[in-house]
C-alpha cells in the first residue's frame, strides 16, 4: 500500500474509533442509570429517616413503660404506708400522691397508645420504602445488564480498531505521521481527507481549478488550503 492509501485507511480508522467513542458516551442507559441511582439515594435517605423515627418511637414507648412501672411501685408503696398508719394528715397526703400518680399513669397510657400507633404507621411507610428500593434495584440490574452488553460490544470493536490503527500508523514515515497527528489535534481527530470531484471530503469546500492543478502537480499527499487537513489527491 502507498503512503496515501495507508493515510486514508488510518484516517478512516480514527474516524471509526471516534464514532464508537461517541456511541459509547451517548448510550442512553448511562443517563438512565445515573437518574435511577439518584432516586435510589433519595429513597435510601428516606429509609434512614423512617428507621430513625421507628427507633425514636420505640425508645419513647420504653421510657413511658418504665415510668409507668415506677409509678405503680410508688403507688403500691404509698398504699402500704397508708395501711400502716392512723395519722390522718399522712393518709391524706399519701392518697393525694396516689391520685397524682394514677393521673400520670393515665396520661402515660394515652401517650403510649399514640406512640404505638405511630410505630404502626412508620412500619407501613417502611414497607413502602423497601418495596420502592426493590423495584429500583430490579430496574438498575436490568439497565446495567443492557448497558454492559452494548458497551462491551462497542469496546470490543474499539479495541480491534485500535489494533488496526497502530499497525497502520507504524507503516507511515515518522514525519508524515507527525503531520497527520498535528492535523488531528487541530481538527477534532479528523486530520486527513481526500479529493471528491473538486471538493475536500473534510470541509466540503470546492477547490478552484488553480488549486486543483497545483495539487495534481504536487505530492500525492497535499494540504487542503481551507481546512488544512492532509489531503490525498489520488490513491
Describe this structure in words.
With 235 residues, the chain is mainly alpha-helical. The chain is 78% helix and 6% strand. It has helices at residues 3-25, 28-83, 88-171, 174-186, 209-216; strands spanning 192-196, 199-200, 221-223, 230-232. It has a 4-stranded mixed β-sheet with strand order 2-1-4-3. β3 (221-223) and β4 (230-232) form a beta hairpin. α1 (3-25) packs antiparallel against α3. It is rod-shaped. The protein starts with a helix and ends with a strand. The mean pLDDT is 94.
How many helices? The count is 5
Helix content, binned percent: over 70%
Which structural class best describes the helix and strand composition?
Answer: mainly alpha
The mean pLDDT is: 94
Whole-Å distance between the termini? Answer: 10 Å
Q: Please provide the ordered H/E string of secondary-structure elements.
A: HHHHEEHEE
Low-confidence region ranges? none
Shape: rod-shaped
Radius of gyration: 41 Å
Q: Largest sheet, described in full?
A: 4 strands, mixed
DSSP strand count: 4
